[in-house]
Amino acid sequence: MYYMKDQFTFYMPRKFVQKDPVKFFKWHLISETIIFSLVVCGALLFSITFLNDYLLIIIFLCIKISFDLTIQKMAELKSNQ
Q1: How far from 19 is each of 24, 50, 78, CA to CA, in Å?
Q2: pLDDT tens across 43-54, in order?
Q3: Higher-confidence residue: 10 or 29?
Q4: What span, in angstroms and rounded, lies between the C-alpha atoms of 46 and 65?
């Protein structure tokens, strides 16, 4: 299913041609570094405090949605030629 989605949304309209490889790698590396730092901070916070499981899930979802809507979108726009 994901292969078909990639075929129709990425390969068929030839979006990979619109990307600058250097910018794409740079912004991808920045976003992965931010994800890694958020995971480390979350693990440290979880080991220090004991929060309710429901609260952890809600916090995770809020952080993930805000990351996808801000940093990931910005990285996508900046990596275009």
Answers
A1: 7, 43, 9
A2: 888 888 877 878
A3: 29
A4: 20
Q: Decide if 67 contacts 35 (C-beta within 8 A).
A: yes
Contact in structure between 16 and 80 (CB atoms under 8 Å): no
pTM over 0.85: no
Q: Is 31 exposed, middle or buried (0-12, 13-18, 19+ CB in 10 A)?
A: middle
Q: How many helices (H) and strands (E) does the chain have?
A: 4, 0
**Single-letter amino acid code for the residue at 42:** G
Backbone φ and ψ for 61, nearest 5 degrees, come out as -65, -40
CB 20 within 8 A of CB 79: yes
Neighbours of 24 (CB within 10 A): 18
